[in-house]
Amino acid sequence: MSFLRSDANECELLSSVCGEAECLNVEGSFLCVCPKDQDYNVMIAKCEPTQTGPLVERKDCYYHLSDENLCESVLSSLVTLQECCCTLGAGWGDNCEVYPCPVYGTDHFRQMCPCGRGFIPNEDLLYGITFPDNYKGKTSINVLP
């Protein structure tokens, strides 16, 4: 006995599933498509203008700068400068081009990490971008136990 499976058209079955966005049925699922220069916000089912502010650079965070195998001492990838240097990072960069983090206890370190090691400021000091709303009201975020 064999059963024929057919793809359900979620766009027809779930009216207004994409809100104001165009619903596009695909094999086994659906996509919500917005006009050019807009992104779909799944939380509110609306198309919103694409954020055009400065992009926060995300690079590799290196644990030891003195390693012979520097390129293999990546602590974490796709992190901001503050996320790296205010935690356990010794350097930040990509493709093994690493910029040292400020030395702990120096004025430069205190400017970048005003709450000390293990805390990330609630605003990216380099780019002036604030973190998401769930961090609002906090002066820092504890990332180390």
Defining key terms:
145 residues, mainly beta, Laminin, Extracellular Matrix Fibrillin, 2 domains, two-stranded antiparallel ribbon, 3 helices, 12 strands, disordered C terminus, glycoprotein, TB_dom, signal, NOTCH1_EGF-like
Describe what this molecule looks like in 3D:
It is a single chain. The protein has 145 residues and is mainly beta. The protein folds into 2 domains: 10-49, Laminin (Ribbon), CATH 2.10.25; 59-142, TGF-beta binding (TB) domain (Extracellular Matrix Fibrillin). Helices cover 10% and strands 32% of the residues. The protein has 3 helices and 12 strands; from the N terminus they run αββββββαββαββββ. The chain has helices at 10-13, 81-85, 107-112; strands spanning 22-26, 29-33, 38-41, 46-49, 59-62, 74-79, 91-94, 97-100, 119-121, 123-124, 129-130, 140-142. The chain has a 4-stranded antiparallel β-sheet. The longest helix has 6 residues, at 107-112. It starts with 9 loop residues before the first helix and ends with a strand.
Helix content: 10-25%
Give the distance, in angstroms, between the N- and C-terminal Cα atoms. Answer: 57 Å
The shape is elongated
Low-confidence segments: 123-145
The CATH first-level class of the largest domain comes to: Alpha Beta
**Assembly state:** single chain
**Rg on CA atoms, Å:** 22 Å
Superfamily (CATH H level) name of the largest domain: TGF-beta binding (TB) domain
Q: What summary fits the major beta sheet?
A: 4 strands, antiparallel
Domain TB: 59-113
Keywords: Disulfide bond, EGF-like domain, Glycoprotein, Repeat, Signal
Protein name: TB domain-containing protein
Organism: Xenoophorus captivus
